[in-house]
Amino acid sequence: MTASRPVALVTGASAGIGRELAAILAREGHDLVLVARRVDELTALAAELKERYAADSRVIPADLARPDAAQEIVDDLGPSAVVDVLVNNAGFGGHGAFHKRDRDAELRMIAVNVTALTDLTRLLLPGMVERGRGQVLNVASTAAFQPGPFMAVYYATKAYVLSLSQALAEELSGTGVTVTCLCPGVTETEFQKVAGVEDVPLTKGPLSMTAQAVAEAAYKAMRRGKLIVVPGLHNKIGAQSVRFAPRRMILKVVRRLHPADH
Ligand SMILES: NC(=O)c1ccc[n+]([C@@H]2O[C@H](COP(=O)([O-])OP(=O)(O)OC[C@H]3O[C@@H](n4cnc5c(N)ncnc54)[C@H](OP(=O)(O)O)[C@@H]3O)[C@@H](O)[C@H]2O)c1
Fold first, then answer.
1. Measured between alpha carbons, how far is residue 53 from residues 6, 23, 39 in Å?
2. Could you tell me the distance, in angstroms and rounded to a whole number, from the CA of residue 150 to the centre of ligand 1?
């Protein structure tokens, strides 16, 4: 890593939105810390970012479902390491009736989507505040705006990310550190396969976005220090409309977007 380039740490950089965000950050002059489980993908990305943007990358393989993962990443970086931009992007979903879902998978989802994001932010924020500069980009979802029957834990994890991000953004005002929460709608990535929602009405619709378009919108919002970014007009309208619709009605509509058997 060169001393002159700011450093961005991106979790979930091996695929999808995280990969695109890492590429944009490299293009915009950052060196990278790339975190995920799949080392080969991270190593290939690091080589690509070097060649295309002369960015130096450090690959840190980590399973963020492990309780000590965030601390181990920070230990690996070393005490003198500076992280200017933290992108908490790693996450996954799961589909099915809550009482029948694999218990371990649900707990791992909370560990990655909630615990690791919180811990990594808690560990890296003091340095940012001390330096009087820093940017945190937390990836939630349009799922954050309402509960999600048959994807109940996933939606709840994203509501947590949205809530935490907004509270921290306010706490940090005046410190030079900003927190932005990205809330994408359906995006073409490996997410649908991992979550088991490739064939549900939600993802079969015509309104999915590319990971690159989502990442560009997120980067722009983060640079401006925006609080929340919902890429795509259809997603913006959806996120707003649930604020006024009756709760029971919202639950019935969301249930139909990804139905499952009891
Ligand atoms: N795609 C959508 O429709 C959509 C919509 C709204 C929000 N989002 C959110 O966007 C974020 C990125 O998802 P994506 O759509 O880009 O999905 P993706 O293509 O499946 O990428 C997910 C990334 O998270 C990493 N990850 C998953 N579990 C991990 C673990 N235990 N430890 C470390 N890294 C882990 C994966 O890396 P490894 O497998 O290599 O570990 C991968 O890099 C997620 O937070 C997701 O909830 C996605």
1. 14, 9, 21
2. 19
